[in-house]
Amino acid sequence: MIGTQPAGIPGSGPALRGRDLAKVTSRSLYLQALFSAQRQQGLGFAFALIPVIRRLYSGAEEQGKALTRHLGFFGTHPVLAGYVLGVVARLEERRARGITIEETQIEDVKRALASPLAAFGDPLFWVTLRPLAGLVGILGMGILPLANPWGPDLRVLVCPLLALLTYNAVALRFRIAGVPRGYALADDPGKLLHSLKLATLTRVLERSSAFGFGVLVVLTLSVLARSADPASQGLAHIAFVLAPFVLGFLAAAFGLKRWPGRGVEIALAAALVALALSTRV
To answer: Domain locations in the chain?
Structure first.
């Protein structure tokens, strides 16, 4: 257990309530709004923790000291920052109730959690989930039938809507559960990190992205195959027209094996090369 209770101190005092943690959760959504180069998310972290400080400490002086402890440098993945907030809220509660917890202990716990959460969160949300969300939006728009040429093409709304829904279907779960789960598992940070199963989720989303990219290639080639031979010049002409896109797909597959963390850049580069070659056919 983090922190020990001295003899003669009952440990009774102010306690956090569920609504306090809910307020911290809502404030954590604005963590990046106060981002700075010097402290990164430090100011946003302190802003999110204000409901906890108000509940636990009475008087402007005590609250000011508590707030100052969290105004320093802090950086982790914003979607996963709630877990650190929950752990710190539990430690501040124990400190306010008379349990011996030094300021350096709280800072060490913050840093010890922030680094692995950033290491797992960046590949999951930025490198894997965000491109997958955009891919789902593109596929959704491509599957819909063509719009009436005499009216507005409402399909343009489908792509951003599906992208937002796909991303937030995964991210919001971590944002909402972060603070209460961190508060509940503050005594065992290792168990907290393991329970998130971030590496497993990353692998699942990577496979989903590969499947979605394959579907997009099939849809693109099927459309091109139908329009590649309007003059009925035969199979050789169709193969000649589609060859740049097949080469682009093969180059993308090779590039993804060589640079697995650059999927978006490789896919865009392969598409541009294929389009450039096809215009010269």
So the answer is: 1-120+173-196, 197-281
pLDDT digits (tens, 9 = 90+) for 11-38: 577 899 999 999 999 999 999 998 999 9
Query: DSSP string spanning the chain?
Result: --SBPPTT----S----HHHHHHHHHHHTTGGGG-BTTTBTHHHHHHHHHHHHHHH--SHHHHHHHHHTTSS-B---GGGHHHHHHHHHHHHHHHHTT-B--HHHHHHHHHHHHHHHHHHHIIIIIIIIHHHHHHHHHHHHHHSPPPPTTS--GGGGHHHHHHHHHHHHHHHHHHHHHHHHHHHTTT-HHHHHHHH-HHHHHHHHHHHHHHHHHHHHHHHHHHHHHHS-TT---HHHHHHHHHHHHHHHHHHHHHHHH-TT-HHHHHHHHHHHHHHHHTT-
In the chain, what percentage of residues exceed pLDDT 90?
Answer: 58
Give the Å distances, CA to CA, from 189 to 83, 86, 161, 196, 255: 10, 11, 36, 11, 37
Neighbours of 196 (CB within 10 A): 20
Mean pLDDT of the 197-221 span: 87
How high is the mean pLDDT of the chain?
A: 85
